[in-house]
Write a structure and sequence with these properties.
By secondary structure, the protein is of the alpha/beta class. The chain has six helices and five strands. The protein has a single domain, classed as Rossmann fold (3-Layer(aba) Sandwich), CATH 3.40.50.620.
């Protein structure tokens, strides 16, 4: 693979419009973007790794245009090891608020110590997406709230189905 390869890792449980915003902006920075869907059973995911990979692929196909080529891959190993096997030179991380920075800064420092050839690049979330998190989406969805402002219609339907809730009526 030629050109600059970036890796945007996450659990994407589920993928949100905030994630899609970071992906759309990341493809302007790299030649090839790998969206790494982490298997993290410790977080008690709502969706399996395979389901999350398929959701990410579908949402990217619908929402992300132009820029770099993109692929979606699951992974279940140390992030820098996965990045090295992918040939990624840049880790893309999204920041929503100052509260994200301390954790992300520590992770970037640790990743650099483990693999100094891989740089971390932070992209700030757009102001309209700063408050969106997969955890909030799941919490709102669990109680039947309308999450269609935060995720794609397809993902909203899958979340409602997972919680055994009926589909919402179409918006006006």
């Amino acid at each position: 693979m030629s050109g600059l390869v970036g890796l945007y890792p996450g659990t994407f449980d589920p993928i949100t419009v905030g994630h899609l915003d970071i992906i759309q902006r990341a493809v302007k920075v790299v030649d090839h973007l790998i969206v790494g869907v982490a298997r993290n059973d410790n977080k008690g995911p709502l969706f399996s790794t395979a389901e999350r990979v398929e959701m990410v692929k579908a949402d990217i196909a619908d929402a992300v245009k132009g820029g770099a080529t993109i692929e979606v891959r699951p992974f279940d190993k140390l992030l820098v090891s996965f990045a090295e096997t992918c040939g990624a030179r840049i880790l893309i991380r999204g920041l929503r608020a100052v509260s994200d920075f301390e954790y992300e800064f520590q992770m970037a420092s640790m990743n650099y110590r483990l693999s100094p050839t891989i740089e971390t690049v932070f992209l700030m979330a757009s102001d309209r997406h700063q408050f969106i998190s997969s955890s909030f989406v799941k919490e709102i969805g669990r109680f039947g709230g309308d999450i269609r402002h935060f995720v794609s219609p397809r993902v909203a339907a899958q979340v409602r189905l997972r919680f055994g809730l009926p589909e919402l009526p179409p918006r006006d």
